[in-house]
Design brief:
With about 130 residues, this protein is α+β, with helices and mostly antiparallel strands. It has one domain: HIT-like (HIT family, subunit A). It has helices at about 10-15, 55-60, 65-80, and strands at about 25, 30-35, 40-50, 85-90, 105-110. The longest helix has 17 residues, at about 65-80. It is globular, with a radius of gyration of 16 Å. It starts with 9 loop residues before the first helix and ends in a 17-residue tail after the last strand. This is Histidine triad nucleotide-binding protein. InterPro entries: Histidine_triad_HIT, HIT-like, HIT-like_sf. It holds the Pfam family HIT.
Length: about 130
Amino acid sequence: MSEPDPSETLFERIIAREIPADIVEETTTTLAFRDISPQAATHVLVVPKTRYRDVGELAAADPALLADVIATAHRVADLDGLVESGYRVVFNTGADAGQTVFHVHAHVLGGEQLGFFGRYQEKPDEG
């Protein structure tokens, strides 16, 4: 086995089946697999098979592929029984937003009550 290309991302290696993953759904353009450090009962990553750095780059270059990513995210939610109860699709863009792999990916989260967005805030008193 040859040394991996240093410009390759972890996700490209998963797509190439060089690294094992718990694959949930695959299309000709996308791959969905369970996150190894889940942040919710369901936490699946949906990646396009073509590499774009982030969701903005993907949207500008290939809106149809972005639509495929979202459609795959919905199918994952449906497969995991989340459509009626609700689910969240998140794209982290840039290091300050928590992006650690610079190959655009959607996080599909659900299967339990999810917290709020952004900075942690306690709920205001009701009385």
